[in-house]
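re: ur msg from earlier - yeah i can do the magnesium ion complex, just paste it... oh wait u already did. ok heres what im feeding in:
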Amino acid sequence: MSYLNRMNAVNAVAEAVCPAPMPPAPFSMDMYGEDVFGRDAMRTYLPKNVAEKLLDTIENGTPLDPAIAGDVAHAMKQWAIERGASSYTHWFLPLTGSTAEKHDSFLEFSQEQALMAFSGKNLIMGEPDASSFPSGGLRSTFEARGYTAWDPTSPAFIKRHSNGATLCIPTVFCAHTGEALDKKTPLLRSIQALSGATRRLMKCFGLPEEKVSVSLGIEQEYFLIDRHFYLQRPDLLQTGRSIFGAPPAKHQQLEDHYFGSIKMRVLNFMTEVEQELWKFGIPAKTRHNEVAPAQFELAPIFEEINLACDHNMLVMEVLRQVAERHGLVCLLHEKPFAGVNGSGKHNNWSVLYGKRNLLNPGSDPQDNAIFMTVLCAIIAAVDRHADLLRASVAGAGNDHRLGANEAPPAVISMYLGDQLSEIIDQVEKGEVKSSRKGGTMRIGVDTLPPLPRDATDRNRTSPFAFTGNKFEFRAPGSSQNCSSPNVMLNTIIAEAFDLFADKLEKLSPENFQSGLQKLLSSTIRKHRRIIFNGDGYTDAWLEEAARRGLGNAPTTMEALGALTRPENIALFEKYGVFGGRELASRHEVFVEDYIRRVTIESDIALEIADSMIAPAAAAEFGRTLSALTAAQASGIKSGVSALKKRADMLGKTLDELTLRSDALHKARNAGYKKILTALNELRETVDYLETIMPDESWPLPKYREMLFIY
Ligand code: ADP
Ligand code: MG
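and the outut:
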């Protein structure tokens, strides 16, 4: 089959899998949550007492009564079948970072009679085996079974396809030893750790026991390009990023894409995405054009953290699938295009005690004392464990953002804004006796001045910013599961709350205010180095950060080291979030994932360079030489020197291309650092060639086409 025939086939496939999008159904609130077995479905399909028990588990964390599992399974099956489902799956989140599903039909036989069945046992527990998922050695023994177990706090849902549907049951995924093989289990454990520590700390302030909940709002960035371009880029197809590509003359310099009017085709796509998300009960709220051309953002309203993480995984899936229906491809890689912004997720986190958001600055001295205490604990936590936050967002894709030439940097620091920083300064000096105005603030005596929301942040370069009533962690990569960073946040903040409670519990009521003041002021003194309100994007900051002794792990391999430090292992063991073996297994899995990705990138780069670029360049060199020979033979003087120059330029570049391709071939088995260096050098040559080769014979779609024509 010739190249052209192959490309015709590829294009035919592109048309075949992209049926015209369905005309949108009108938005209505009836569609919201229609594909979720939520409160309404429970009330309709379950006996009243069973529905109440289940809701009590979901809303208040009461242990699930196993006796109701049969009823719940029956109701879910009924509900799902009425919506076209014939199969169910335990839906889980393996360490690959994606979602996993293995479908089973409801088909069973009873006395040779075929029927649709789904038992409590099927609901609660699954044994998908799933032995090909990475386990980092946790499953190397002979009993290497993997189990899934129902997470009733994340509602079941159906996923529809054009001629059926599947009932999906969110589950955790563990080894037979109970050791976690997934991303959800440690998140649930960390929520528990934080709940306990928060209750303990709030008790110090005399507050009655309340439910603790953690809120999370995940802003999702992504790129869209036309599917035809995508299918002609082996690098995008296989790695999600363009490994080659010369920067176009105009990209994002004019900042004319950010918040620009949204193209009709994209708006059609976004509308369908939102409809799909609303059906899943995912509160999609905000959409806009992002900074880079062809880059966009979607943000839902924040939700309970476990649900928010599950929902973000579904958001990514829906983005990809709906894009396909619109003849587009959604790129979730952290850096699909060099030279323009990459994509991240902003992880907006806050903790609630009952209805009180502990990150809301209050209006009376008691509220303020609580707010300042929580704030100082978080400052201490982030300073102590910046390495863990950094490790939680490590990955081959994110290396192109963090520590490379764009915000946020790989150095973890905290942004509080000028006003809050000033208050922190006052609290640090708080023992000086003076009145509040222009003087120092005393905890439990003074009130905070109101903090206008706008004053708290517009610094987009900080990886960890206080934004009015929440912290926004901006380092997670656009393709990552947000559970890892939140496991870290919950655990390190639980520890900080506990360390405070250790001190505060010892104070007598009459010494409480002065003791608290001392505690906060010494905490600030010790940990203030983590606070930085300036431009995190400059070299000056990197030098300053080094002087302050802040860690800087610009690459995945350096960052992942945090998972092997004894003090970190001890921390996770203390809070029951990871056992030592679990943490070691994760370290192994992430290191392996990184190396595999880099190797795949180098392999595809070599294939493109050797089988597409080099032949095209050689052909052009040949054409130029023939023209030169002809010109020389003709006796015409003009044009000869230009052709000579061009032949020389092409010849030299072709030599360089061969040299650099050979170098990458050699580096392939010489470790990831050598691979990356060789890959970057090869790219330089290929990208230069792109600028001198005839436009018509360049084999790859160009940046200006992919980023601007859609
Ligand atoms: P931006 O950061 O672009 O200014 P917002 O701050 O309004 O936008 O919201 C960003 C995300 O933060 C949204 O998903 C929003 O629902 C979420 N969010 C708002 N308040 C909280 C909170 N208290 N806890 C967690 N997330 C929140
Ligand atoms: Mg934001």
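cool cool. Residues 215-217, 219, 299-302, 348-350, 357, 467, 469-470 surround adenosine-5'-diphosphate (ligand 1) (CB under 6 Å). ping me if u need the other ligands too
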